[in-house]
Amino acid sequence: MSRVKRGVMTKKRHKNVLKAAKGYRWGRKNLFRKAKEAVIKAGKYAHRDRRAKKRDFRSLWIVRLNNALRLHGMVYRDFIALATKKNIALDRKVLSEMAVENPETFKAFVEKVK
Fold first, then answer.
1. Which CATH number do you get for residue 101?
2. What is the pLDDT of residues 88-99, one digit of tens each?
């Protein structure tokens, strides 16, 4: 059986990990073992925070809506209950953008829902 030398693939794997760790501080940018740990942990954080970003934005939209609705004498939960009852299918993102960018339109919309 012939001998297998694995240096080429090892070098390639190390190079890819160190390339992914570019810009990290201290030994995590140029020591393979530390770089590999840092890249794995960074990937976990990135995955977690891609999910968390969706929650954060939804809560931001709800806070914006609630503040805009209080100016018109309503609170968020009552507004959403009325909108659901009247089968108005605008999501929170669109409503909060409307409240921030077009207050006149939003005021007319709130009056319609009331």
1. 1.10.1900.20
2. 888 999 999 999
